[in-house]
Specification:
Blueprint (H helix, E strand, L loop, with lengths): L3 E6 L4 E6 L7 E6 L2 E5 L5 E6 L2 H5 L13
Antiparallel strand pairs: 1-2, 2-5, 3-4, 4-5
């Protein structure tokens, strides 16, 4: 299983979660307010982007994250 990679951009206030290596070319589909799925050319979800992350979670210091390892 590929590693999950999480990136936070303070400048853009976004969180990007990639399932494996981030790809240069993706298809982005907004599925909710500020929630974007990143798909490869075959339509497989390879990442998620959360816009307005700090604003959404209501804190600049921390927010809960649950990791499940299988």
């Amino acid at each position: 299983m590929d590693k999950v990679k999480i990136y936070y951009s303070k400048e853009k206030d976004t969180i990007d979660i990639w399932f494996g290596e981030p790809e240069l070319e993706v298809i982005s589909e907004e599925v909710g307010e500020g929630l974007i799925l990143k798909k490869d050319k075959d339509g497989k979800v390879i990442g998620i982007e959360k816009l307005y992350a700090v604003k959404s979670f209501g804190t600049e210091k921390s927010f809960p994250v649950e990791l499940v390892m299988t």
